[in-house]
């Protein structure tokens, strides 16, 4: 597992916990490489009935699998204005997080759960923007 040393977990204004940085992260930086535990898609219905429901990723070239990201991978919060993105490496298998822009010290690192940073399709929960109550 590879992770920049300035990352830490703290309570998030977006809800629950989130990943933050204690030092600036330049645009394009590889933030973290998270190994994943890959599971058959047929197990999703069981995972959906557990506390892991909000923590797994759809996985595979044809979205036929699911995966749990280790490291901080499953703790990055969603934003429709993300400052980072994740890229699946199916051969690794890892989920790799990159800075989309400079991320300031103290800022929460966020990703768009739809995969594409510009995708504003609905997500399965009420998404909040930073600063909203």
Assigned CATH architecture: Beta Complex
| Rg on CA atoms, Å | 14 Å
- Fraction of helical residues: under 10%
- Helix-strand makeup class: mainly beta
Written overview of the protein:
- The chain has 133 residues and is mainly beta.
- It has a single domain (2-111), classed as Beta Complex (Beta-clip-like), CATH 2.170.270.10.
- It is 3% helix and 38% strand.
- It is built from one helix and ten strands.
- Residues 123-130 have low confidence and may be disordered.
Tell me briefly what this model is:
With 133 residues, the protein is mainly beta. It has one helix at residues 44-47, and strands spanning 2-3, 7-11, 17-21, 30-40, 56-59, 65-69, 77-78, 84-89, 94-99, 108-111.
Layout: helices, strands, pairs:
Blueprint lengths: L1 E2 L3 E5 L5 E5 L8 E11 L3 H4 L8 E4 L5 E5 L7 E2 L5 E6 L4 E6 L8 E4 L22
Parallel strand pairs: 7-10
Antiparallel strand pairs: 1-4, 2-3, 3-10, 4-6, 4-9, 5-6, 8-9
Give the tags.
mainly beta; 38% strand; single chain; six-stranded antiparallel sheet; Beta-clip-like; four-stranded mixed sheet; 133 residues
């Amino acid at each position: 597992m590879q992770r920049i040393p300035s990352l830490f977990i703290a309570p998030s204004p977006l809800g629950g916990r989130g990943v933050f940085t204690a030092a600036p992260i330049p645009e394009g930086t590889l933030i973290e490489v998270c190994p994943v535990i890959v599971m058959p898609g047929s197990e999703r219905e069981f995972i959906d009935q557990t506390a892991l429901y909000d923590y797994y990723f759809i996985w595979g070239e044809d979205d036929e699998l699911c995966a749990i990201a280790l490291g901080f991978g499953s703790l990055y919060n969603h934003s429709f204005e993300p400052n980072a993105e994740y890229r699946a490496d199916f051969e690794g298998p890892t989920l790799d997080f990159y800075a989309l822009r400079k991320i300031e010290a103290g800022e929460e690192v966020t990703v768009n759960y739809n995969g594409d940073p510009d995708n504003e399709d609905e997500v399965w929960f009420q998404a909040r923007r930073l600063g909203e109550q």
